[in-house]
Write a structure and sequence with these properties.
Length: 520
């Protein structure tokens, strides 16, 4: 059995019947079964002229979900009236699968076809149910969508009844909206459901119902049980091949290749394939754990450099770039939203308060670090609280990346403190105190002050001016010189608020100060 990863069903109701097709009963002689079947919209729609092919392959994740949405939007912009989704997938995340199926169900600007050349199992089968039509290779497989999760003993187990019941209702609604037998769709996710091929004695029509559906109908005697559907026997999730799917009304047709699909819909030429672009590849690469960790390290180190000196400099720009790339890739990857961005900005605000306004290291600093960590972890996942072993593993990976990055940043901070000025490229970022001026023979301190360069000033503040620290300097902060408030930086010494300070040197917009009564 191919698992459907994840067991959390979205809280919102994902599927509701929006379009109901009328089944046109048609008795077809079958040599294999010698029985009559119902044909569900087997005839393709007319007047389709502009089709596009989208390949939907591999495990279903939030990233693959967003990739599909981008390709569908491209097809819409190119005025497509037919979209063929070529599905070859063993399944994947349940929530992403349900969202994609719901998206296809609501898509009204083109006719959608799920073409299955090999397999559409688990979540991929749910995705296929959302398309207007399902076309399969005769030997392709469809179904087996029972939700399971990884237990503490690392063995897959069936999801709780609450989740199975919710999912069963959603796939029933989905199948009914597309004119497919709801009972057969439910049998894909309910291993204990037995479906019967039945005849309506009043209307002389063939359909598929479970025992519960027959018993709960207004007139149970109306239905004549012909035979049970073998694939829905107890203890098995329904899984069928292409030929059988058409017989049961789960699929509309079979096709050996894309060429036959094109011929079915009367297209004049081959359908253009919406291939992966540079944007899609960039999103994939940026979501790799190693690249994510690298972005964390560079961004946090740059942020450390920026917080070590006032003003927006190279460190601030580098930090903004790294975290902007991180959240942008997570947005396109489908795991981040505005909540994570808001938490990140609030975290920066708390850290700024701690560094430049509030003395010491207390609640603001701890809150900033916690919010920063939460925002970065949540940006890499689609859930808020882990409920399965797989989700716990995902959080563990995110925390490992974050902790490793934090440890690397801590080592980098020590290196920056001691060696930044000696690194040729990074040396320009280091703020060195001015070299002490050696007095000439017989020159008094007053004479040295007279020789200070008058050009060394910034916003009216000059070397040698005395002021008062307006906030804690650790080492950066605010200071007041007369009626002027300005950002200053100590030599690394902690200075409390309200202490007298003196300007030692000015380099550009960076002012180095020292407490007047502090160590010389």
């Amino acid at each position: 059995m191919t698992p459907t990863d994840g067991s959390r069903v979205p809280r919102e109701v994902a599927f509701r019947p929006t379009v109901r097709r009328r089944c046109r009963p048609l008795l077809v002689g079958l040599a294999l079964l010698g029985a009559a079947l119902v044909c569900h919209a087997a005839e393709p729609p007319q007047k389709l002229s502009r089709g596009f092919l989208i390949r939907f392959e591999g495990p279903i994740t939030a990233m693959l979900e967003q990739y599909l949405y981008r390709k569908l939007e491209t097809a819409r912009q190119r005025n497509a009236d037919l979209v063929v989704l070529q599905i070859d997938s063993p399944g994947g995340e349940l929530e992403a699968s349900l969202k994609i199926a719901d998206h296809l169900l609501k898509l009204d600007w083109a006719h959608t076809v799920a073409y299955v050349p090999r397999e559409a199992l688990s979540g991929a089968a749910i995705v296929a149910l959302g398309a207007d039509e399902i076309v399969m290779s005769p030997r392709a497989r469809l179904g087996d969508a029972g939700p399971i999760f990884l237990g503490e003993d690392f063995l897959f187990r069936h999801a709780p009844e609450k989740i199975r019941s919710n999912l069963a209702q959603q796939v029933r609604d989905l199948a009914e909206a597309r004119g497919r037998p709801p009972a057969l769709a439910e049998a894909m996710v309910n291993m204990d459901l037995v479906v019967h091929r039945v005849r309506d004695r009043d209307a002389d029509q063939i359909t598929y119902l479970s025992d519960k559906e027959i018993e709960s109908s207004p007139n149970p005697q109306q239905w004549e049980r012909i035979q049970p559907v073998f694939e829905s026997r107890e203890g098995h999730f329904l899984e069928v091949n292409g030929l059988r799917a058409v017989e049961l009304g789960l699929a509309e047709a079979t096709a050996q290749s894309v060429v036959e699909v094109e011929a079915r819909y009367g297209l004049a030429g081959p359908m253009p394939v919406l291939e992966r672009t540079g944007l899609d590849n960039a999103v994939t690469i940026l979501n790799l754990p190693l690249v994510t960790g690298l972005l964390f390290v560079v961004g946090l180190v740059a942020l450390l450099i920026e917080f070590s000196s006032p003003g927006i400099g190279l460190g601030g720009l580098a930090a903004i770039l790294c975290f902007a790339i991180f959240f942008w890739s997570r947005f396109l990857g489908g795991t981040a939203g505005w909540l994570e961005v808001t938490l990140f900005l609030v975290a920066l605000a708390f850290l700024g308060l701690e560094l430049f306004v509030i003395p010491g290291f207390g609640i603001a600093g701890v809150t900033g670090i916690v919010l920063l960590s939460i925002s970065l972890v949540l940006a890499g996942q689609t859930f808020l609280i882990p409920r399965t072993e797989r989700e716990l593993a995902a959080i563990g990976q995110s925390l490992l990346i974050l902790l490793s990055s934090g440890a690397t940043v801590a080592v980098a901070a020590i290196g920056l403190t001691y060696w930044l000025g000696e690194v040729p490229i990074l040396g320009r970022l280091a703020l060195r105190p001015p070299e002490p001026v050696q007095p000439a023979a017989g020159m008094s301190p007053a004479g040295m002050a007279e020789r200070a360069e008058p050009e060394a000033h910034y916003s009216g503040v000059r070397v040698g001016d005395v002021g008062v620290s307006d906030s804690t300097l650790c080492p950066a902060g605010k200071a007041r010189f007369g009626d002027v408030w300005i950002d200053v930086l100590t030599e690394g010494v902690y200075v409390e608020k309200g202490r007298p300070i003196k300007v030692l040197g000015i380099t550009g917009n960076r002012i180095v100060v020292r407490e007047v009564n502090g160590p010389s």
